[in-house]
Amino acid sequence: MRRRRFLYSAGATCAPFALFPSTLRTDESPEAGSASPESGKAAEPEANSADAWPVFRGTPVLNGVARFALRPPLKEAWSAAAAGAVTATAAIANGRVFVGSGEGDFLALDLTTGKEVWKVDLGDVIESSACTVDGKVYVGCGDMALYCLDAVTGATQWRFETQGEILGGVNYHRDGERLLVYAGSYDNSLYCVDGTTGEKVWSYESGNYINGTPTVAEGNVFFGGCDGALYMIDALKGTETGKVLIENYMANSVAVDAGMAYLAHYGNEVVAVNLATKEQVWSFRERDFPFFASPALTADRVFAAGRGKRLYALDRATGGMVWEFKARRSLDSSPVVSGEVLYVGSDDGWLYGIDVATGEERWSVEIGKAIKASPALVQGRMVIAAEDGQVRCFVPAA
After folding, report:
1. What is the rounded average pLDDT for all residues in the chain?
2. pLDDT tens per residue across span 185-217
3. What is the pTM of this model?
4. Cα separation of 137 and 355, whole Å?
5. Are 268 and 290 contacting, i.e. CB atoms less than 8 angstroms apart?
């Protein structure tokens, strides 16, 4: 049986959870410790190469920045059909595109031609953005399981069961020769699983559903959930190193860099948090519409797309608005920065290329159906899916 789609559908949110005033406070419980860069024991996650997009937002720190400049105008190179709407963001490695559909099919496509390499039916809705590392593909499913598939053949290597749907993306971390993968579940828990064996390494229970892709940075795993808290968990041990009560639920992912976390939540705000002090440095609120998309982060800007039809560029140090771009409908697609251009999809059915410096539209193309997936960029190509069930690849027009 195919399960219903969750947070993307109109009116669907997290489990019952009271939206508190938009304030932030630190958890004073004895077990909450420091999550400063010095406290982490794990090594830093590796960066993606220009010819791979192995995880949601491009790298384990989930900053949404490509390692090369894809300059518009673009043209469609190919389009491939999936079964049902596609809201997951594609993962790309070794010339293949990996993405799941609302009808439970998981596809491997040739990056150059768009031709199907293999397809497996996981039997339930796939909103999870896959992660591909070391010849394996990891993806969550609405059947409450995390799958490991062979990237070459699609054969199932292992299946790890939880007690809730896994609708958020999968992330990874290397502990020496051991590969660890992380996924949040609607059973309220974050899981760390051995990427080779599929055995549980540890789990951490939060207070409500976990919908976003966990972030791996500075020796910790960071995630926000439907209980309105930002969690910091030791990447190797699974122990809580910090917790900040945002008091608004977070259906997306956190961007982390240089001891700071940047998040956008359902309480209509974008927030910057100092991870060492657990204090809010700044917050931005311009309209009374929630944020579902995950922010993108550069050296001096935070880019946040919201359900109020607006894409904001904020000063990373102060949170002040630099510019705003207005789309025709909500923006649930998480923006990606590539050189001087930011790419983002919209519920209005258009894919936009926006000037990073000015907020002016540099390029756009009409897809025709809502785009909730986020762009995946590799050298000279952008792959993005839409609710029409098509996975599309764009390349420079000239």
Report:
1. 90
2. 999 999 999 999 999 999 999 999 999 999 999
3. 0.90
4. 33
5. yes
Q: Could you tell me how far CA 315 lies from the centroid of its own chain?
A: 22
9 vs 153, more confident:
153
Considering only CA atoms, which of 292, 347, 373, 349 is closest in space to residue 88? 373
Name the maximum alpha-carbon separation found in the chain.
59
Per the CB < 8 A criterion, the answer to whether 355 and 363 are in contact is no
Distance CA 8, CA 387 (A): 11
Nearest to 89 by CA among 186, 191, 6, 171: 171
Cα dist. 263→33, 234, 244, 310, 390 in Å? 20, 19, 12, 16, 29
pLDDT value, residue 6: 43
Alpha carbon distance 168, 128 (integer Å): 5
Residues 6+ apart with CB under 8 A from 45: 59, 60, 61, 172, 173, 174, 216, 217
pLDDT at 49: 73
* Tokens found for residue 175: 């502990």
| Predicted local distance difference test score (pLDDT) of residue 43 | 40
Who's near 150: CB < 8 A, 6+ residues apart?
135, 136, 137, 156, 157
Cβ(387)–Cβ(370) below 8 Å: yes
Residue 39 DSSP SS3: helix
Task: Tell me the β-bridge partners of 313.
Answer: 303, 323
Reported as a single tens digit per residue, the pLDDT across 283-307 is 999 889 999 999 999 999 999 999 9
Q: Are 177 and 193 in contact (CB under 8 A)?
A: no
- Using alpha carbons, list the distances in angstroms from residue 129 to 7, 125, 168: 14, 12, 7
CA-closest candidate to residue 99, choices 383, 325, 337, 396: 383
Q: Half-sphere exposure (CA, 13 Å, Cβ side) for 268?
A: 11
The single residue listed with the structure tokens 């968990």 is: 233
Bridge partners for 193 per DSSP: 181, 200
Least confident of 31-40, 81-90, 304-313, 346-355: 31-40
Terminal Cα distance for the chain, rounded: 46
| Cβ neighbours for 38, distance < 8 A, ≥ 6 positions apart | none
Q: Which tokens sit at 282?
A: 């700044």
Provide the CB-side half-sphere exposure for 258 (13 A, CA): 7
Q: List, in sequence order, the alpha helices (H) in the chain.
A: none
Q: How far, in Å, CA of 353 to CA of 361, rounded?
A: 6
